[in-house]
Amino acid sequence: MQLPFEKYMKIKDAIIILGPGKSGTTLLNDILALHQDLFWVSTYLNKYPNHPWLSLLNNFQTIGVIEKFTRSRQKFPRPAESFPFWAHYIRNFRFNPKNFNEQDILNAQDAVKKINRYQIGERFITKLTGPSRWRFLEEIFDNPYIIWLDRDPKAVIASFYSYKWKYKNQPEIFKKKEKAELIKEYVTYYNNLQIDKVNLRRFRYCEVYYEDLVDNPAVFLAKLCNFLELEYSKSFKQKVNTWGILKKTNSKYQKIFTPQEISLIENLLSK
């Protein structure tokens, strides 16, 4: 349902990173959010969404020495998946609602604009994983740029299993389930996301792959910046080149699953 307020209120030229989860979206968000023209929701703002002034601290990430030092350090503000931020403003956000309260939408838009009062950058970037949430995106943003980052599905399923996805707070239930049952559950979820992502093509949409990102980050980011209409500046390129990205991580699933289990995954994926 389209809400009855003017389109100009929507956030223009935003960049949304999406994917099935465990597909490299965190890595891509960490790197791309360092572009000098972008501003974002930080780990601090996720925890304290009513304090947009905390976004002042995001500006420290423009200083190369500080940015490198704070990588993988949770006590420092870094780009983050913005789920808690949106959930604070949008009621029932975790349940992926189809209809929205007008005031919730306006409050969320205003919250994003307040971030930009404190952080340098002209365009908003954020990350979400799982369902496309295209209805939410359509209400908040004006024809955003969508990056869907996917990965070898066997590697994604292996990560779901390793991290006990959906059962992190219910380890006993996880232990009671047969491995084949969990595989079927995770593959079904992945397949459903592949169907759902079609809804994102109503926006400016680009589908990219984790394997290309890790194989040649500089080329990958240059092409992505071209799609996003961002300058692939010398300063941003230098930041990209400082990231030591691990390669050949997709084969880990071979250590997690037996040949029979891999065959089961492949069969389920082909349906």
How would you sum up this structure, described in words?
The protein has 14 helices and 7 strands. The chain has a 5-stranded parallel beta sheet, sandwiched between helices. The model has no long low-confidence stretch (mean pLDDT 93).
Q: What descriptors fit this protein?
A:
single chain; 271 residues; alpha/beta; 5-stranded parallel β-sheet; globular
Number of β-strand runs: 7
β-sheet strand percentage: 5-15%
Helix proportion: 40-55%
Our measurement of the CA-to-CA distance between the termini, rounded to an integer number of angstroms, reads 32 Å
The outline comes out as globular
Largest beta-sheet characterization: 5 strands, parallel
Q: Determine Rg (CA atoms, Å).
A: 19 Å
> How many helical stretches?
14
Mean pLDDT: 93
Order of neighbouring strands in the sheet with most strands: 3-4-2-6-7
Order of helices and strands: EEHEHHHHEHEEHHHEHHHHH
Brief synopsis:
The protein is an alpha/beta fold.
Outline the secondary-structure elements:
Layout: E1 11-12, E2 15-18, H1 25-32, E3 38-40, H2 43-47, H3 64-70, H4 83-89, H5 102-118, E4 123-127, H6 134-140, E5 141-142, E6 145-150, H7 153-162, H8 171-176, H9 179-196, E7 204-209, H10 210-215, H11 217-228, H12 234-241, H13 253-256, H14 259-269
Parallel strand pairs: 1-5, 2-4, 2-6, 3-4, 6-7
Helix pairs in contact: 7-9, 9-14
